[in-house]
Each structure stands twice: as C-alpha cells, then as structure tokens.
Design brief:
It holds the Pfam family Phage_integrase. It is a single chain. This protein is α+β, with helices and mostly antiparallel strands. It folds into two domains: 64 residues, no CATH class; 86 residues, no CATH class. It has six helices and seven strands, in the order βββββααααααββ. The chain has a three-stranded antiparallel β-sheet. A hairpin with a 5-residue loop joins β6 and β7. It is elongated and about 70 Å long.
Amino acid sequence: MPESLHGLCVRCGFVVAVRGLADEGFRLVEGTPKNHQRRSVPIPRFLVDELAAYVAGKRRDALVFTAPNGGPLRNTNFRSRVFAPAAASVGLAGLTPHDLRHTAASLAVAAGANVKAVQRMLGHASASMTLDVYAGLFGDDLDAVANRLDEAFAARDKDYLRTGTTNGGVIDLGKRRSPGR
C-alpha cells in the first residue's frame, strides 16, 4: 500500500490537499487549493481500509478519484451524471457536494472538534471566519459547562488538588491562598 498517493496518506489517517484543479471554461487549470496552502482533512478509521484497498496499485502521483476515462473528475459532469442522481435516489434531491462540506463541519463539531481544528480542516484563513459560518454548531450551553465542572469536581480524589514540592513536602492547593490575597 502506498504511504501517500496524491496527498492521500491512508496510513496516517488524513488527506492533504496540495493541489487542485479549477474548471475554467473548457479547460482544467492545476494549481494550489483556494488559500494557496496545504490543507489536512482527517479520514475516520472506518474508511481507512476501504481507501487503502481503493488506492492499492496506483502510482503515487495518480489521481485518487477519476472520471470513467481515467482523467480528472469535472465538477459539472460529475454533479449532473453521478452525484445528483445518487442524492435523489436516497431522498436528498438538491444536495450539493458543498453541502457535504457543511456536513463534515457539523460532524466534526458534534464529535468534539474545537474551532481551530475545524478551521484547519476547512481551509479557512481564521477561526473567526469559521465561527462566522458555523457559530450555531458550537454550543453555548453554560449550564452544561457548569454541570461538567461539577462532575469533574465530584470525581476528583484526595490528591487532585495536591502537588509535590522540591523539598518533598506537599502543598494542598485547596488551602493555599493566592499571592496578594
């Protein structure tokens, strides 16, 4: 199995987008992704074996997914001939590939990803851009935060608030006052 194939590092568990193809009229132009930087997108473990089998035997510089003739997938052809009919067949008529980007962001947030991880995954220039688009996905339930803090406090053991010192003694941080108080 190749370690890396056109940016797909199956063994590593992520895809690195290092180049892209833009449809400009009737020709494809190869270049870097939109922000001119590499982008890493995680691959869930449940897909790694399937992707590894799919890329087995391909050259390292080969395209991972191709059109029927072996060339690059063209967005307009792929969407009208493959994607739209497949989406409609499962009751998702009108779904677009870009909708899947939003779904990936939603699933990452639901899985506990922080805003910086989602930013890197989507290739956004800043975390604020990610929050502008996906703020509603990041919960602001302060009651849930308070509940998790209560659970952590209740679960601690006696040594939770203790630390060792250089002379071998122990300072109970729960009884120690902050400097200046």
